[in-house]
Amino acid sequence: MILPISKPGTTTQVITGEWKSFMPIVEAQKCIKCGICQNMCPEGIMGDPKAVPEIDYNYCKGCSICANECPVKCIEMKMVEE
């Protein structure tokens, strides 16, 4: 059953990550733990801003904002394989 997302906060109640074409992959050893990606994520699903991002792929839509905002480019967008 697909539920429409119609009010704030519903994305945390409905799994929305199934429709992504690309997913962010974090190269942890390059991460400087600046928190920019976590703060810029529109879904707020990247964990503690003072740690290496732990992305909740159940809710990640693959928007690539995190990868675009990363100052050290440690997040790469990879195509989702079926």
**Care to count the β-strands?**
2
Strand order of the largest sheet: 1-2
Helix content: 10-25%
* Major sheet details: 2 strands, antiparallel
CATH class: Alpha Beta
Distance between the termini: 21 Å
What kind of assembly state do the chains in view correspond to?
single chain
Q: What would you call the shape?
A: globular
Calculate Rg over CA atoms.
Answer: 13 Å
Question: How would you describe what is shown here?
Answer:
The chain has helices spanning 36-40, 65-69, and strands at 22-26, 75-79. It has 82 residues and is α+β, with helices and mostly antiparallel strands. It has a two-stranded antiparallel sheet. It is globular and about 30 Å long.
Core attributes:
Alpha-Beta Plaits; 2 strands; 82 residues; globular; alpha+beta; 2 helices
Summed up, what is this model?
The protein has 82 residues and is of the alpha+beta class. 12% of the residues lie in helices and 12% in strands.
Itemize the secondary structure elements and their pairings.
Layout: E1 22-26, H1 36-40, H2 65-69, E2 75-79
